[in-house]
Amino acid sequence: MKTINNRPEILSESLGTLLSKSFQTYTDLLEAGLEKANMILSSDGECGTCPPENTCPPKWIGKIYRKAMAMERILVPITIANSCSEAKTYKIGLRELRDVDGNLAPSQPILNKNNFTLEPNSSTRILMGINLANFSNKTYQQEIVVREQDFNQNILFTLEVVDDQGEVFIPVDEKKFRLKWQSWKTHFYCEPKRNPNKNKK
């Protein structure tokens, strides 16, 4: 039985109990926080100790598609931009234009320039000309190669040669140009009277 004489002992036990509960609460909060942090890290699939994943540059930095008819002469504009903070000098060239079966095209495209220097945040336009005089109705592809120093960066060009019928236009019957609206009450058309002397000299 605890009495007043045991008051220091009682206070010591109460303080010990309070500290124990506080420590347990702190431990629970810490564990909950760590668990939540682990969930966030695992959801991204990344952690501070993981090595970076290997990433390869894209096979093509862009694609160009063009549709034309055989016997046409076409110009394909290509714009190259320099987004760096210093001037860059580039070379540009063409690989062979071939059809989907790997056969060489009847004629090859020609560029109006093969090298150029771009100031920071500037661009230039290159024109690629193709004479489709002897082309068949097929799909052709080639790579346009842009190179600064050591690495080729390619643009995929696809040319579809088709027999395009064009848009269909139907002329209006000339008789409709001669019909005149008579009145909003009658709701019909009629031909105006012709002057018999109009065509006489």
Question: Could you walk me through the main structural features you see in this protein, from its secondary elements to its overall organization?
Answer:
A hairpin with a 4-residue loop joins strand 8 and strand 9 (152-161). The protein is built from 2 helices and 11 strands, in the order H-E-E-E-E-E-E-E-E-E-H-E-E. The chain is α+β, with helices and mostly antiparallel strands and 201 residues long. Strands 1, 3, 4, 6, 8 and 9 form a 6-stranded mixed beta sheet that branches. A 3-stranded antiparallel beta sheet has the order 2-7-5, with no helix packed on it. A two-stranded antiparallel ribbon has the order 10-11. Helix content is 21%, strand content 33%. The longest helix has 38 residues, at 7-44. Among the domains are: 12-44; 60-161, Immunoglobulin-like, CATH 2.60.40.
Write a brief caption for the model.
The chain is an alpha+beta fold. The protein has two helices and eleven strands.
End-to-end separation: 145 Å
Kindly provide the name of the CATH class of the domain at 60-161. Mainly Beta
User: Multimeric state of these chains?
Assistant: single chain
What number is the mean pLDDT?
A: 81
> How many E strands?
11
Largest sheet: 6 strands, mixed
Approximate strand percentage: 25-35%
> Under the CATH scheme, which architecture of the domain at 60-161 would be assigned?
Sandwich
**Structural class, from helix and strand content?**
alpha+beta
| Helix-strand sequence | HEEEEEEEEEHEE
Q: Which parts are unreliable, with pLDDT below 50 for 5 consecutive residues or more? A: none
- What gross morphology would you assign? elongated
Helix content: 10-25%
